[in-house]
Structures are given as structure tokens and as C-alpha cells.
Amino acid sequence: MSQGGSGTRVAQPLTHSEGREFDELVAGLVPCRSNDPELWFAEQTARIEEAKALCRECPLVAGCLAGAVDRAEPWGVWGGEVFVDGVVVARKRGRGRPRKDAAA
After folding, report:
1. What is the reported pTM?
2. Which of 45, 79, 80, 82 shows its CA 20 to 30 Å from the CA of 71?
3. Residue limits of the 4Fe-4S Wbl-type domain (predicted)?
4. 13 is in an annotated binding site
5. Domains of the chain: which residue ranges?
């Protein structure tokens, strides 16, 4: 960080090598870096629930969720929540026809 004009600290963007060092630092601490990446984009309910459970143990869960909301992530498990079309949903529906009573 550098000092701003009023004595405040200003965050500097990470360089490519600093970003790589961060990845190496968090690799063993962050479940999405040490498990199958496809787990966070699974279609099966059991796999989605597994990803959400792993997220609950993650030290970065709050920041991950906030970032995903800010970016309106189109889909996947982010910060322990399921995103569909950029919106957090309680439960992801399986593929196929919608239920008949869904229109009512």
C-alpha cells in the first residue's frame, strides 16, 4: 500500500506474481482451490450441497459471497450460496420441464 495525500493508505493492485503468491498461500486453506473445481458448478443437488458445506468452513466465505453478488455471478456456488442467472437462490432446480403447478 502507498500513502495517499491526506495520509490515508491507498491499496495498490496486485502484480501478476503477487497474485500467484496469493494463490499459493490460500491453496491449502480455501476449499475451492483444493477440491475439484467442477464441484462448485455441479448440476446434481448432492454435489451442490457438498460445495455449500465446504464453503461454510472457508475463512474467505464472506468476501467470496460479497464479490459474487457484486459481479452478479451467472451460476455456481459462491460463498456458500447458489447463484442462478446472477441471483442467489435457495435451491437449484434440476433440469427438465418445470412443475405443472409452477405457473399457478
Report:
1. 0.66
2. 45
3. 31-88
4. no
5. 2-103
